[in-house]
Predict the 3D structure of the following.
Amino acid sequence: MCNDTLTGQLYDEDVQVGMTIPTLEKRPDLQQLVMYASASEDYHEIHYDQDFARKQGFPKPIVQGALKSGFLAQLITDWVGDGGRLWKLEIQYRKPDFHGEPMYCMGKVISKYVDGDHYLVECDVWIENSSGEKTVFGTAIVGIPPKTS
Amino acid sequence: MVSVITDSLRAAIGKDSKPRTHLVEAGAIRRFAAAIGDPNPIYHDDHVADNSSYAGIVAPPTFLRLFRPSPAIPEFPNPYANVLDGGSQWEYFDQVRAGDRITVTIRLIDLYEREGSLGNMLFAVRENRFVNQANILVAVDRDTEIYYQGLANV
């Protein structure tokens, strides 16, 4: 399962409780929200129709919750590399995010444990907006291979 | 606060939808990854994917969101006009690969209410179960949807 030929592979020995995951910055524009609406076949107008969004009390169309989950899944898969696996991803959407605005996808290791053959790491993951408010909260459980296997 | 969870709403808990089977198309995987802005080659490059630990193109973790049962949401006497996505709990057991046939069923597993910034809100938790052509459960997704009156009525 370990692949030393891939640069940047993360190993269990490299991970300590409290370490942060490299931040993934996203800034989806309205076109990206439309692309996601099409790719996920979910055409709720609140994600692309300015007038509809205003009538719902939002200043402009809001980023799909599921797209935010997709961003946090990418945060994890980028971090763990080819040999790692995402096993659980629990996400809560707390505040709206808007197209054209930066979203900082972040994470931190909160525990490590071994379950059978699996070396597992639990992380807090979240998204911050440009005001530093957390708009999305979540946790992830990932498998990260040991160097010694 | 007057509860909107009527007996007929409560009776919807625990019933499975009809299953529906979807083909995992390589083009759909590629478009889904592009919409997230995730350039990882395991989602679109056969050569890289074949030589990775995945041994072939796989779907991104949240791709199964695309596969809905029929109807997408089981019959549900929704008391409110508006809905927001509250969150997801994904559990993964096996990879989803281009060419797989995935059968999805959905079940309402919980209903509860809370008073919040949008007035009275009804939370519905639904469990989506995804099984592949080899009858292996590949993932479970528990989604929470929040139904609410809307600002005009608060």
Confidence is low (pLDDT under 50) at residues 1-6 of chain A. Chain A has three helices and five strands. The helical segments of chain A are 30-40, 50-55, 65-80.
